[in-house]
Design brief:
S-adenosyl-L-methionine binds at residues 78, 83, 129-130, 144. One of its GO terms (molecular function) is rRNA (guanine-N7-)-methyltransferase activity. It is an enzyme of class 2 (transferase). The chain has 214 residues and is of the alpha/beta class. The protein has one domain (4-212): Vaccinia Virus protein VP39 (Rossmann fold, 3-Layer(aba) Sandwich), CATH 3.40.50.150. The protein contains 7 helices and 7 strands; from the N terminus they run αααβαβαββαβαββ. It has helices spanning 4-14, 22-43, 51-63, 85-91, 104-116, 149-156, 178-181, and strands at residues 73-77, 96-100, 122-125, 140-143, 168-173, 188-196, 205-212. Strands 3-2-1-4-5-7-6 form a 7-stranded mixed β-sheet, sandwiched between helices. Strand 1, helix 4 (85-91) and strand 2 (96-100) form a beta-alpha-beta unit.
Length: 214
């Protein structure tokens, strides 16, 4: 049974602007979900097995961050099965998404997704994040399930030699405890915490946005 009707309905309910037509985006999301389902049987990419549950808990959750992602060059740290980077790349084809994943099996899966979906705006780095060095500016560094906030900013602060006061570190969290927020220390600071509404998902979701004093 096709997932397209549910995907299209869910995208409309999300009420977020996409840079491509909703129907086209829905088709590519369906391809992506079916690839995850296929590879998941062997490589255990995610504990969620049902593509319909993946749509809500993975894809819509990832797309909900779009209004808060600034700039065209985005680094997704510890991306796993490509979350949130692949959905962002599908919705914003003019962006440049760099997926960082040290696990070889997951990185091979990401390469296959890039090939089958013709994602020319995606680059995959099979490296530990502390070993990644990029040239040029990076606008947003995002993570969905990588680590606590202190480790996240510490390991990514030297991704590029270029400092930019507008750069954002964006962490997707279920709930952010005070003790984790206290890990954000100078020159980093908490800019804001934004609650996210994801259609069909009752669990609390937040975006923690961090910036750096230059």
């Amino acid at each position: 049974m096709s997932l397209l009707p549910q995907i299209e309905q869910s995208l409309q309910a999300l009420d977020v602007h996409f840079d491509v037509a909703t129907g086209q985006l829905a088709q590519r999301i369906e391809q992506y979900l079916l690839l995850i389902e296929k590879w998941n049987k062997i490589h255990n990419l995610t504990a969620i097995r049902d593509p319909r549950a993946m749509l809500t808990q993975h894809v819509l959750d990832s797309l909900a961050v779009l209004p808060h992602i600034h700039g065209p060059r985005i680094v997704d740290v510890g991306t796993g099965a490509g979350l949130p980077g692949i959905p962002i790349a599908l919705a914003r084809p003019d962006s440049q998404i760099i997926l960082v994943e040290s696990n070889q099996k997951k990185a091979v899966f990401l390469q296959q997704v890039k090939i089958e979906l013709a994602l020319h705006n995606v680059e995959i780095r099979m490296q530990r994040i502390e070993d990644v060095r990029l040239t040029g500016t990076v606008d947003t560094i995002i993570t969905r399930a990588f680590s606590e906030l202190g480790k996240f900013v510490a390991l990514t602060r030297n991704l590029t030699v270029e400092n930019d006061e507008d750069r954002r570190w964006v962490a997707m969290k279920a709930n952010c405890a005070d003790n984790e927020l206290r890990q954000i220390v100078d020159p980093f600071y908490l800019e804001t915490i934004i609650p996210l509404a994801v259609p069909g998902l009752d669990a609390a979701r937040q975006l923690v946005i961090i910036k750096q004093r230059i």
